[in-house]
Design a protein that fits this description.
Length: about 260
């Protein structure tokens, strides 16, 4: 005899140990009482106040997929609102907008700052899976979340060119190549996609990222030693001020609304 338990993880890169010890919840898809006892024993190290949700396999799986797709939807929504403001030429402080929306406990703070979009190993994968399943319903909400995200880098490049002129034959530094802070993970990184697209347009593109320890050429993008002078520095994630002070650039631009120098 054997038992089969579906126990999805909700760990976030950069804080996985903390998320393991202090999770928001424990979800387990089970079929037998003995399986519930196994989960109780397995997670006896976590505080008793942490909710444990016991359900069937399908529900446990959908909790995982729906959670990530909902987080992705918030990010695409924030970017869609940014597009609306661009289209109508409104003078919007997107950081204040995000902070104000986040004060509503029904909304929550995550994902409200417009910028490059969602990337990494979890949100794109799970959202794409749910979007594929959605096709059989006749609706397109989750598919549009994916489409907004996939088109976002091109939209940002277009916006930069509207504000600063054609991006060609420029020397550009991307500060932050991994998909988010506190990780060196480049999987589905929109920062890396941005760097490659700018290189394909005929620019000389470099990268700098404190989270990536091995300073080597990555998919044609060379590492920077910060000694060069750049036409543009594009910041994609939080960086220490002493690093910014070392950078010699004509223009420094943050590409996420919570960053300094945000200018989209």
């Amino acid at each position: 005899d054997f038992y089969l338990i579906y126990n999805p993880e909700f760990l976030r890169e950069g804080s996985s140990i903390y998320n393991l010890i202090q999770p928001d919840k424990i979800v387990a898809g089970i079929n037998h009482q003995k399986e519930k006892e196994i989960i109780e024993e397995l997670y006896k190290f976590i505080p008793s106040s942490i909710p444990k949700i016991f359900t069937n396999w399908e529900t446990a799986e959908l909790i995982k997929l729906a959670q990530n797709a909902f987080l992705a939807m918030k990010i695409s929504f924030a970017n869609d609102v940014m597009y609306i403001a661009w289209k109508h030429k409104w003078n919007i402080d997107f950081k204040i907008l995000a902070e104000a929306l986040g004060l509503d406990p029904r909304i929550g703070k995550y994902g409200l700052y417009p910028g490059l979009g969602f990337s990494g190993s979890c949100l794109p994968k799970d959202t794409k899976l749910l979007a594929e399943l959605e096709k059989e319903t006749g609706y397109k909400l989750i598919q549009e979340v994916i489409r907004i995200n996939e088109e976002n880098v091109e939209r940002i490049i277009k916006k930069l060119e509207e504000k600063y002129g054609k991006l060609k034959n420029k020397k550009i530094l991307i500060v932050g190549l991994s998909f988010k802070e506190d990780t060196d993970d480049l999987r589905d990184s929109l920062s890396l996609e941005l760097a490659k697209k700018l290189k394909d347009k005929g620019n000389i593109v470099y990268w700098y990222d404190d989270d990536i320890k091995e300073k080597k050429e990555i998919e044609g993008i060379k590492p920077s030693d910060l000694k060069e002078k750049y036409d543009f520095v594009l910041i994609t994630k939080k960086v220490q001020n002493d690093i910014l002070r070392k950078i010699n650039a004509k223009k420094v631009i943050g590409l996420k609304a919570y960053l300094d120098y945000f200018d989209l």
